[in-house]
Design brief:
binds magnesium ion, alpha/beta, binds adenosine-5'-triphosphate, globular
Amino acid sequence: MSVDAIIETRHVDKQFGDFVALKDVSVKIPKGKLTSIIGPNGAGKSTYFNVLSGAFPPTRGTVLFEGKDITGLKPHEYAHLGIAKSFQITNLFPNFTVLENVRIALQAHVSRYSLWRKRESLQGLREQALELLSLVGLADRSGGLARELAHGQQRALEIAVALAAKPKLLLMDEPTAGMSPEETKTMMGLILDLVKDRTVVLVEHKMKMVMGISDHVVVLHHGQLLAEGSPDEIRDNETVKAVYLGQGH
Ligand SMILES: Nc1ncnc2c1ncn2[C@@H]1O[C@H](COP(=O)(O)OP(=O)(O)OP(=O)(O)O)[C@@H](O)[C@H]1O
Ligand SMILES: [Mg+2]
């Protein structure tokens, strides 16, 4: 398949001691699309997520971002390139307001020499924070404390915080984990909104859930690439079916 890849791994291995968590994973993540990385428990999804986000340098192989070799760069250098991740609510300041959480994140990306610029003044940052909160459906909660939000809303806030960095690529590990069906539906709608303006990669073990919204699906199993393709191709893939059979996903 010929794709315009935003990020790509070539022959990536990741070992923890003698344990091989990823083996020879070569994948291109198409630009501007929603790609889901799926696979049974322990397949290596989170490990792969951590390779894509720069948290885990691969043991072997190469990571390319927009065609440039970024293997082994530090996580903050990945962030600087425009790669953001959203995966844990511990990034939030629970006793700060919802708005302040986003404003602080925006401020972290402003040079202290440009604070006089309108968009980067306190009022400008407030407005940008409100724009992001509207995008994730939290505008009406902006004055409340982060810790008072429901679980699904905290995940949405976490996404707004990640978006403050204006990423080209947003990585999400199980964004609907622990969510009610209603919260899951809201989050899926939000993800579809996000992919209109950027590339999104989801890591998910619930296969059915991502099939309806993904453009591209990558299946990992025992740390290896088992299959990739459109949701229809993956749904019809006999090997994938065999791996998921009886797992209730
Ligand atoms: N830091 C680590 N040290 C040692 N082994 C690890 C480490 N991280 C992951 N592993 C192992 O690597 C394998 C893949 O783990 P990973 O978390 O990537 O799987 P996963 O597909 O995300 O699973 P899940 O669906 O449960 O989230 C597992 O066997 C896990 O025990
Ligand atoms: Mg995982």
